[in-house]
Write a structure and sequence with these properties.
With 125 residues, the protein is an all-alpha fold. It has one domain. The chain is 61% helix and 0% strand. The protein has 4 helices and no strands. The chain has helices spanning 21-33, 39-51, 59-82, 88-113. Helix 3 (59-82) runs antiparallel to helix 4. It is elongated and about 70 Å long.
Length: 125
């Protein structure tokens, strides 16, 4: 039996929602799962915006990288959709998908090593 004056103990979580390396890994995985379940990429971008500016250090470069990856990929997907009237749009869509996958893999490898993204403002790798 608990005392009525004792405050309840706060719940503990796995800390995957807190800003930091684990959260960044979750967002990368959400982006990759977004190819199968599209809504997960939207959840990932929301998480990136919520945690940007809170982690500090090398993790901040990953949040910038993730946010730019989402918006550049969305722009590429829109352009490829417009160009799908001609055959080049399908090739561009494939190139955008490969670009996103490569950026996520590069980011995951950097997080695993505890390193920042060298140039988070880059459009390339």
């Amino acid at each position: 039996m608990t005392d009525a004056n004792t405050p309840p103990t706060p719940r503990t979580t796995d800390r995957w929602l807190d800003p930091g390396p684990l959260n960044v890994k979750v967002i990368y995985v959400l982006y990759l799962v977004g190819f199968v379940i599209g809504i997960s990429a939207l959840i990932g971008i929301v998480m990136a915006y919520i945690n940007r500016g809170k982690a500090g250090g090398w993790v901040e470069t990953h949040y910038t990288w993730l946010i730019r990856t989402f918006w550049i990929a969305l722009l590429g997907a829109f352009v490829s959709l417009l160009l799908s009237v001609i055959a080049i749009g399908f090739l561009l869509g494939l190139a955008v998908a490969v670009w996103v996958i490569v950026r996520c893999i590069v980011g995951l490898q950097a997080v695993a090593r505890g390193e920042p993204i060298r140039n988070p403002q880059s459009w390339m790798l």
